Amino acid sequence: MNAVPAQHPSRPAFRKLSTQEFLEARFALTLIVPAVLAITLVAFYPLAHAFWLSLWKINLRFANTPWVFLGFGNYLDTLTDDPRWLNALRVTGTIAVSSLTAEFILGMVFALVMNRAFRGRGLVRVAVLIPWALTTVVSARMWQVIYHATYGVFNRLLFDLGIIEAYKPWIISPIFTIWAMVWADVWKTTPFVALLLTAGMQMIPGELYEAAAIDGATAWDRFWRITFPLLRPTLLVAMLFRMIDVFRMLDLPIVLTGGGPGQATETLSLYTYRVIFTDLKFGAGSALAVMTFLVILCMAFVFIKVLGAPVAGSEAEDR
Amino acid sequence: MDGEGVPGMTRRRQFAWLSAVVGGAAAVACGGEEAAKPAAPAAKAEPTKAPEPTKAAVAPAAPTAAPAPAAAPVKITWFAGRDLTGFSVKQVEEFNKQAGGKITLDYQEQGQQTSDLRDKFILVANAKDPSADVVSMDVPFVPEFAAAGWTLDAEKVLFGDDRTKFYKGTLDGATYLGKLFAVPWYNNGPGLYYRKDLVEQGGFKGPPKSYDELLEQAKKLRTADIQGFSAQMSQTEGGIITWFEYLWGHGGDLMDEKLEVTLDKGTAGVDSFKRLLAFMYTDKILPEGALGYKTGADAQNPFIEGKSVFLRQWTSGLTQNDRDDSKIKGKWDVVPLPSLKGDKAGAGCLGTWNLGTSKFSKNPDQSGEVIRWFTSQAQQKARYLAMGVPPCRPAVFDDAEVKAKYAFADKLKVTFESLKPRPVTPFYGQMSANVIQPVFGKVTTRAVTPEEGIKEMADGMRKIMKG
């Protein structure tokens, strides 16, 4: 990053800098140093430290246990002989795919509604945003009550509609629990997606729609040929953020299901948290954390380099 | 040229920025690194820094070392489990009055479930945080915390003649490698609560003595509105204890005395699971909702509301049956758990709670005083009278006031004589949290068969014992 000014592609890198340029470069450097330091301290240092810890066998459950250097042993163990990790990966993947699909379909609908001018639009916007404003722990508790086996309103609803014959423990079922959790997550985060998409829609110039209307484009054409392509950058960024969120998901499962039944809703983060904080296996847990990080990094790479998600002042926005 | 160069740079910068964001996100997500850092090296150094003899030598000198002139009261924080009756709070108030400004006891409940307390204490102890002084401990916590070096031994808190005044079994449960690490505070064991009126109306001679009788009576007495049986069946410590009692009742066990895993030897494991599954899914005396009973109180609520004929619950819940909003006042009774053949009291799980001192407490002497006060004869009696939780000192049972209040005390004695401990090993806590509870959850929700569950459990337990 620091080297960027020197490697400016428009000039040969080896040319001597003029005094003016030198001063400018020095000034630029001074300006970015605090940011680089902050990032190093809060992002790179913990990451490097986690990687260092991940190379050891550390078990703080027993006093006087020495650290044992394992190299990549923790990683190999996880990759070759850890059904619990595979399960967590599968659970997280399932949530990511299903939750994101639902959120983006619903979020798009909400965004289209919120973007229209009508009486009471402010009210609708506030109503849509409320779930997002709630703390996850609070909403998780709320869904716990809604899904409750004996006095949950969800059971009551299905029972009154004649869909079920007896109340069911929805969040203690190997089949339904994960979907109950996905739904709670969709309910909570759709507003976030809708908000981002609304912001994206408001940047699309109205003349485009007017011109399209004159040319006789249908509503569907206008959505598919104007709104959607121009919204694509926003869409990708929102998806990336949500994807990262899902891979960090800890609060919802820990409160709503505790990862159960069995390990049916144990996400990667929850598994990692438990290995580190209740088993106190810092080495193995750090290896899990590093692996989660690598998964997220790969996905971010795909989103940005392959799909071209514009993060932080992109060319797409510049143009 | 210049114009083209700029976006290129922006891109580079974007990517750096993004990796920083992602890196930060991952650090937040996985959270462990920061907290891990200071604790890990310190833990290695700890034993050499604070050897046992130094601590013992310092202890007698402590009162003089403390700032003497008009000393402000020492604050002692107590990490405790949940007490629904509210009696503990009253008892703490009483203590603070009696301590006369020398000690202020701060009573902090750490959540509904036993595992909440364990998780919290592990976090605090592992960070060497002095914010916990006294900690309540379920039987399996004692060896686990002692082995990790998180608790001080209680050799100086309870010694000499005083030790003979406790039930030996409760002291054994508080001992690790020959040293006492906690003082038994109250005793707990299960009972079969039942509705006297309904059993009589059904024409039965008395409450069930065997599993089959329990099934027969529950099946006959249940109605659309009243469930036959209630028991904690959730994926929690309390849930697996419900199962342990059936496992023991069928002649099985998790481990033998040499701590070899014996769960998958014989058919007791599979049989006990099949019985509980039949209760829930085939005979339907136990509602599927029981899978969501996370605490003993959750299981007891339907009983108190008059919506359950039978209930497996700790004796610490007895007084709740007569609380103000109870619909079953005077209509209930309690007997020992049923057994396989009905020829003896069924095996119940030992649920003694103990009080110990955190190794990172800044005031171990005052903590010891607190523990001595709460485990004294007078306070164990007060607790028994107010909450119905039996004492760890047999002498309390001979007290006239106690005898007058609890007619059923004699009946429960049988139960208390046959209580069984969970495996006494520092690995139990991990086994329970990582293997037994999740697999129990899978079997009870029928995600796997009992046979698969028992195999998975036994294999997992063996893996943990290997370290």
Briefly, what is this?
By secondary structure, chain A is mainly alpha-helical.
Count of domains of chain B: 2
SSE succession of chain B = HHHEHEHEHEHEEEEHHEHHHEEEHHHHHH
Average pLDDT taken over every residue of chain A: 87
Span of the ends, CA to CA of chain B: 63 Å
Report on this model:
The complex is a heterodimer of chains A (319) and B (467). With 319 residues, chain A is mostly helical. In chain A, helix 3 packs across helix 7 and helix 4 packs across helix 7. The two termini of chain A are 24 Å apart. The N terminus and C terminus of chain A are likely disordered. Chain B has two domains: 182 residues, D-Maltodextrin-Binding Protein, domain 2 (3-Layer(aba) Sandwich), CATH 3.40.190.10; 199 residues, Periplasmic binding protein-like II (D-Maltodextrin-Binding Protein, domain 2). In chain B, helix 10 crosses helix 11 and helix 17 runs antiparallel to helix 18. Chain B is globular and about 65 Å long. Chains A and B meet through helix 1, helix 11 and helix 12 of A and helix 1, helix 2, helix 5, helix 6 and helix 17 of B.
